[in-house]
Amino acid sequence: MRGEGIEALTHDVLIRRSLEMSPNGFITIVSIIQGVALALLAEKTFDDPSVLVGLQAVALLLIFVCVFYWYLTLSVLIRWAPSFLDCFLPFAIGGLEIPPAYFLGDARAWNLWLALFWAGTAVGLWITKKWTPPSHFGEARDAHRMFIDLARRLQMTAGVGALAVGFCGIFAYLDWTHQTFWGLMGVAAILGTIGFVVMRTENGAARIHQRFGVSRPPFN
User: Fold this and answer.
1) DSSP line for 38-67
2) How far is CA 17 from the centre of its chain?
3) Average confidence (pLDDT) per 10 residues, the chain, 220 residues
4) Phi then psi for 48, rounded to 5 degrees?
5) Rounded alpha-carbon distances, angstroms, from residue 75 to 12, 79, 84, 94, 154
6) 77 Cβ contact partners less than 8 Å away, ≥ 6 residues apart
7) d(Cα 147, Cα 135) in Å, to the nearest integer?
8) Residue 212: which residues within 8 A CB-CB, separation 6 or more?
9) Whether the Cβ atoms of residue 94 and residue 34 lie closer than 8 Å to each other
10) What is the rounded distance in angstroms from the CA atom of residue 200 to the CA atom of residue 207?
């Protein structure tokens, strides 16, 4: 009996530690990566300031906030035992945020890299959607369906954003005489994508919180 009790205690402690580690660890990793990206962005922005560079810098800053916001929302809604893939994704998504700072003012490279970022984000959301079982929400299977629906909508938004910014990058390569125009169009596509991501996340998270009796109005 004593051995069974120790085994049960060890099992409970292992589960609790595993579930507590994932959100705190991922938020810490994302924060460190974005701190590096933010420092680089500030350095590159003031190297060669212009209207296009300033707007691209603002768009990148909002992407940093959007990624941190999603991981923070994710850490509240679900708990999971970290796998190698779980540890890889924050570095992959966060790593894609760093190179665009080197392309400020270059409409072609900046747009195409941001298209790659949104494409990578869509893949990350697909992985999250695929490997989030109903058990993360206990008996509230409808809350699990809400979360899957939210991830699907965000995946679609990221995919559309990748296409929109990618087309701006392609046209910037083809149309050498209107680099500023295609750069501004890429910024507009990024801002529009971020707006839809935030709006859908706010509404989706509010619905899930309401399911558990927690008042969390959108944009509160």
Assistant:
1) HHHHHHHHTTS--HHHHHHHHHHHHHHHHH
2) 25
3) 47 60 75 89 85 94 93 82 76 87 93 96 90 79 92 96 96 90 96 96 93 84
4) -145, 70
5) 20, 7, 17, 16, 16
6) 136, 147, 205, 208
7) 12
8) 140, 143
9) yes
10) 11
